[in-house]
Amino acid sequence: MVWPLADGVICEEDRALEATGLILKHIIAENLAEKPESDKLYAAIGVPAQASIKNKKAIIEATKDFIDKIIIVSEPFSVAYSIDRFDECMIVDIGGGTTDLCRMHGSIPDEEDQLTLKFAGNFLDNELTKAIMENFPEVQLTPKIIGAIKEKYGYVSEVSDPVKVTLTKRGIPAEYDITEILRECCLKLTNPISKAIQDLVGSFDPDFQEKLRNNIIIAGGGSRLKGIDIAIEKSLHEYGGGDATCVRDAEHCGSVGALKMCMEMPEEYWEKI
């Protein structure tokens, strides 16, 4: 088994590079089975907000044999493109390997407008696994079980219905109350994100800080954590308050934005790449 991606980018090993290329070739073959050979293939590929030049070169290397032209875009910028929000807002994209934040202010974001955190979905999975095993040492867990618990019950609100899950111990199922365990683990994810939002708001042009903190858009799988929008709003209380909303299509919003970018890119621009 090869895990080709880590922290939102291709792992630094040849097998990961090869695996990434094979996966992408398979996806293209499945979805464009009737593509004439003479047709060129263009793609927009998303990366974490602070991906390095080396990370981006790895993507080019993995795709050079079967994609004719690519543009590499910041993932939160893809979200913004999808929903047509380019001015006076902040995108918070909580994915699996990274959480990416980006201030949008009417132009292509600069480096100081963006942040990448390694507090994301995989981090939460690891924290939840450790916490459950510490409290119930003999239960049997798998990444699939943990992922299902997180996606169904994950929350950061102060009040929640009891979260009771059925787990097995030596093959025997029993019910376990993980209400507080789950909340504490989710807060380990959301607290650093809230701090990063505070930093991006606090370092922005004072004339536009109010609009920025009142237009926070949360995307990615992590946006489905119950109460995450309210938790972020509360974290901005001493800054004058804030308003946060979650996108409707949490998982595909960034991909839709990348596709939209490809379709709207003028032909002459592609020819220059």
From TrEMBL:
Compartments it resides in: Cytoplasm
Subcellular location, principal: cytoplasm
Pfam family, one: MreB_Mbl
UniProt KW Nucleotide-binding keyword: yes
Organism field: Candidatus Thiomargarita nelsonii
Name of the protein in its database record: Actin/actin family protein
InterPro entries, A to Z: ATPase_NBD, MreB_MamK-like
Keyword vocabulary terms for this entry: ATP-binding, Cytoplasm, Nucleotide-binding
One cellular-component annotation, GO: cytoplasm
Superkingdom, taxonomy of origin: Bacteria
GO terms, molecular function: ATP binding
